[in-house]
Every structure is written in C-alpha cells, then in structure tokens.
C-alpha cells in the first residue's frame, strides 16, 4: 500500500504545477490571467450547474471527471490559446504530439490501474466523439466567452478576433454539445462585435 | 429558459471570485499563496485519485460535487486558517453564522431547484456526518499537510504549530474518514517536528 500511496501523491503533487500555467483569458474582473487549475475547477462547476443543457445520454459525473483532468498536459506543454496564430496553433499536429507525450509522463506517475483509467478519460475528452466528451468540450469553449464578456472583451481584443472567427472557432463547438446554450450566448456576444 | 440561464450564469460569474480568495497554504513550490478556487480543483482531483482510501458506502462522485462547492462561502467570509488564533477561529460560532449568510446569498443566485440541491450538499459537507461528507473533510485536511510537506513546513512554521496540535486539529479529522491515509501521512510528517 505504501508504494501505491507514494505514486498517488507523486501525481497529486505534480498536478499542483497546473496552478502555475497561465491562460490567455483573465478572471471576470480582469485583475490577472486565469490559471489552468482554477479554470478546471470553474469548468467542473459549469458542468454541475448547466447539467440541464446536456443532451441525452450524458453522464454529468463523467463530464466532471474529464474536466478535472482535461488540462493536466499543459504542465508540460502550456496553454495554447484558441485564437493564437490566427487560430491555427491550438489543434496542430505538433501540439497534439506534445500533449500525448505529456499525458504519457504525467498519468504515468500513477499506479497502473489509475494511470489507465484516467488516461483513457483524457483521451476520450480529446477525441470529442462520445456524448460526455462533446458536452465537456462545449463547456470548455463557453467559459472563456463568458469571462471575456464579463471584462469587456478580453482575448477578443488581444487577438483582434471577428464575430465570424468566434463563431467558427468557438460557437460551432459550443453548439455541438449544447445548442440552446450557444443560441443564448450568441445573443449576448453579438452586440460586442458591433 | 432565458431567465434560468441568467440565474445560472449569475452564480457561475460570482463563483469566479473564489479565485481571488487567498489561503494560508502556498503552492508546493512556495511561490505564492494558494487560492480557494484552485484548492477546490486540487481537492476534487484528490478524491478521484484517492478513492480507494474511502470507507464503505462512500460515493466518490458526490464527494467530488461537495468539494467543488465546499469553499464558495469564502467569497464573502474569506479563508479562516485552521491554525489561526491558536486553532480557535476556524469552527467558531461567529464564523459559522457568517458562512450561513454567505450560503444564503451565493446559492440564492441560482434557480430554485439548483439552489436547494447545491445548498443541501454544502450543508451536508459542513455537518460532517454522512460517509461522503466525512471523507470529503478528510481530504480537505490532508491536502494542506501535503502542500506544507512539499515546501518545507509552510503554515506550521508560520503559526508555530506543534505535532500534538497538528494531530488534534488535523490528524483526528483525516483519520475519521481515511484512517490508513493518516497512518501514512503521519509517518511522513513526524520527522519534520523533530
């Protein structure tokens, strides 16, 4: 049991480093950039509160578990903002390969059974094919939109984003997992772009 | 539906403020104080990874939900460190009354059904009587111990804590929900106190 606990805490102490990974998005009051640890907490809370926006077959507890894990690879790779490099960096093959190496290292700190379970959950999130993963991805896209709205534009201004770019890079993915939610958010966002 | 989403997001945007509530404990690298938002994320991850330490009848998904919510009242009340005022402030009647008022206000932002469900979950955590709440409380006590160990003493040095005080204020509560975990952590901690 001692070896098992050593491995469990090697992972949990390593996870602490996610609190030092900074995102492009700020807090709602624009006081500082958000970090990926607190972002993961906020997203899990989004899942709990917006569960009624999920489609049939979505298990909110699995969504929450995914969201708790989804950014851990950023400990090695950092956050790649959606709108950086004109929207091309986020899903690039290079980023995906680096994230796979990070997953191997970070989940590899865990005892074998946990390593396999949690890594499979992260891979399911990344693949964005199951209902749980599609809904989790929708929440991951909607939260920065709400943070930007709260602070008067945020990363839209930083990256000179147009409404069409927001709709294609972000709106489409929100709508895929939570269509009614995107309808509502879209109406909130549209006036900001004039 | 629009009114409902307005209320859901009033709560989620208010929750963002928990990221600005600072705790006595630092990150593992001692670079800065931890905030209560990222602490809540880390604890939920603790629940996921240390599920095998829970006693019979514990539902880890309910524990995770509790831990996501457990510190929201600190938006109004702030964090009250376990070892402050020689260990007397944390559970005082004054603190408890302030936290109850905060819960009324913060959960009150939600639509009625969600307000009732999430507030009940927070109250269950606070009461620390059900197996889920007892295990959640154990994790809430063990995480700062691990952070202190990682950074060479942390709040034990700040508050001049003795091993006996640590055992009575913290160890007893860890042992209540996760006895094998406290046995292991106790051995790690003992040498620090000489």
Structure notes:
The structure is a homodimer of 194-residue chains. Chain A is globular, with a radius of gyration of 17 Å. Chain A is mainly α and 194 residues long. The longest helix of chain A has 20 residues, at 131-150. In chain A, helix 7 packs parallel to helix 10 (179-189). The first copy, chain A, has helices at 2-15, 36-49, 60-69, 74-77, 93-107, 112-127, 131-150, 155-158, 163-177, 179-189; strands spanning 22-26, 33-35. In chain A, strands 1-2 form a two-stranded antiparallel sheet. The model of chain A has no long low-confidence stretch (mean pLDDT 95). In chain A, a hairpin with a 6-residue loop joins strand 1 and strand 2. Chain A has a single domain (2-25, 33-193), classed as Hypothetical protein af1432 (Orthogonal Bundle), CATH 1.10.3210.10. Chains A and B meet through helix 1, helix 2, helix 3, helix 7 and helix 10 of A and helix 1, helix 2, helix 3, helix 7 and helix 10 of B.
Offer a quick outline of the entry:
The structure is a homodimer of 194-residue chains. With 194 residues, chain A is mostly helical.
CATH C-level category of chain A: Mainly Alpha
User: What oligomeric state is this?
Assistant: homodimer
Please state the second-level CATH architecture of chain A.
Answer: Orthogonal Bundle
Overall structural class of chain A, as computed from helix and strand content, comes to mainly alpha
CATH fold naming of chain A: Hypothetical protein af1432
Which sequence of SSEs, written as H and E, runs from N to C of chain A?
Answer: HEEHHHHHHHHH
Helical percentage of chain A: 55-70%
What is the number of helices of chain A?
10
Shape of chain A: globular
Mean pLDDT of chain A: 95
Rounded to an integer in angstroms, the radius of gyration calculated over CA atoms of chain A is 17 Å
């Amino acid at each position: 049991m001692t070896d098992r606990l050593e491995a469990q805490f090697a992972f949990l102490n390593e996870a602490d480093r996610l609190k030092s990974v900074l995102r492009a998005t700020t807090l709602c009051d624009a006081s500082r950039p958000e970090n990926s640890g607190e972002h993961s907490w906020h997203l899990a809370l989004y899942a709990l509160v917006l569960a009624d926006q999920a489609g049939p077959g979505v298990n909110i507890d699995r969504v929450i578990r995914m969201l708790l894990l989804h950014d851990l690879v950023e400990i090695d790779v950092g956050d790649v903002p959606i709108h950086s490099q004109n929207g091309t960096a986020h899903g690039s093959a290079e980023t995906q390969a680096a994230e796979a190496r990070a997953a191997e290292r970070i989940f590899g700190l865990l005892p074998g059974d946990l390593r396999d379970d949690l890594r499979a959950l992260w891979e399911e999130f990344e693949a964005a094919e199951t209902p749980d993963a599609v809904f989790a991805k929708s929440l991951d896209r909607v939260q920065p939109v709400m943070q930007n709205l709260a602070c008067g534009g945020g990363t839209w201004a930083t990256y000179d984003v147009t409404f069409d770019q927001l709709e294609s890079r972000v709106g489409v993915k929100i709508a895929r997992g939570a269509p009614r939610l995107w309808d509502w958010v879209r109406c909130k966002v549209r006036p900001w772009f004039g």
